[in-house]
Design brief:
- This protein is α+β, with helices and mostly antiparallel strands.
- The chain is 52% helix and 14% strand.
- The chain has a three-stranded antiparallel beta sheet.
- The longest helix has 27 residues.
- It starts with a helix and ends in an 8-residue tail after the last strand.
């Protein structure tokens, strides 16, 4: 059960692995073909392996600095992509609901919608006046009150915390309520 939940809440690294494998395979196949063509005595398709090795050894000579900079920047970006993909946790925008009988994974947008409804009812405002953002560790509820109608921040916070407690999310995010100082007219 834990394996299924982890698979559903963490992103796969298969795409990056496939990209890396295809790049390495393509480079090896090209080197093999160029070497085979040279061994047979034919002219190289693109670059003779011996000439390529000599140019790499004497790299700064004869190459414009701008081209070196661009190639270096592209290689750094590719390396950074693969490095970050390997090191970062790769969590999806999902939470696990506690249930003894089944593995339940809920998208953060669904959680945000439920919390927005609960906050809207507690604040007695319209749907457009509440915006909820859910992340792994935090729920941020932004409420724009109706002008002239008092709004109890603590009532909204209590309602959102009750809803979070009823959901039983793992991990349980912390709720934060932001009430704007300007209100909405006639809502």
């Amino acid at each position: 059960m834990e394996q299924i939940l982890k698979r559903e809440t963490h992103s796969s690294r298969a795409t990056a692995s496939i990209i890396a494998a295809v790049l390495v395979i393509a480079l090896c196949v090209y080197a093999l073909l160029e070497t085979a063509v040279r061994a047979v005595g034919q002219p190289p398709w693109l670059v003779d392996p011996q000439t390529a090795a000599e140019k790499v050894v004497a790299l700064p000579d004869g190459v414009p600095p701008l081209l070196l900079g661009v190639v270096g920047a592209v290689l750094v970006m590719a390396g950074l992509f693969f490095f970050l993909n390997a090191v970062l946790p790769g969590r999806r925008a999902r939470h696990v609901l506690l249930d003894r009988r089944a593995a339940v994974v809920v998208d953060d947008e669904v959680i945000a919608s439920a919390l927005a409804r609960r906050a809207r009812l507690a604040a007695n405002v319209s749907q457009e006046q509440v915006m909820v953002t859910v992340s792994r560790q935090q729920v941020e509820v932004n409420v724009r009150p109706t002008s002239g109608v008092p709004l109890s921040r603590s009532a909204v916070l209590t309602a959102v915390q009750d809803e979070l407690r009823e959901m039983g999310l793992t991990p349980t995010p912390e709720a934060r309520i932001n009430v704007t100082s300007t209100g909405v007219v006639g809502a």
